[in-house]
């Protein structure tokens, strides 16, 4: 196993993002369309939060809807904004952080994604799935 592999080798760099003015309905559609579980919330190039599919599940019945269904009951989404639901106190890494360091952070925290930020700009996202896929590739 390569011990000094950088997170930039396993992260997703083509990141789907939201901004704080997007609706939670838009967020749910993006989660389902792209089959992802975490979306950084940005203001310009700056990341201001992270919205997870679990965050939506806490306030709705989003998981009870068929993923191919595009009509959803959005009443609960009108009661909240993305800023109210997203995680704000983020732990982040930069593109030169090692995969080992990422694994250590994710193993100790209660979240499953880290934004990758260089010079204040969002460069990617690394998730527990990226980490597992990397480990599987080693065998």
TrEMBL record:
Gene3D superfamilies: CBS-domain. The keyword rRNA-binding does not apply. Residues 11-67, 86-139 form the CBS domain. PROSITE patterns: CBS. It comes from the Bacteria. Keywords: CBS domain. This is CBS domain-containing protein. It comes from Aquimarina gracilis. The lineage of its organism: Bacteria, Pseudomonadati, Bacteroidota, Flavobacteriia, Flavobacteriales.
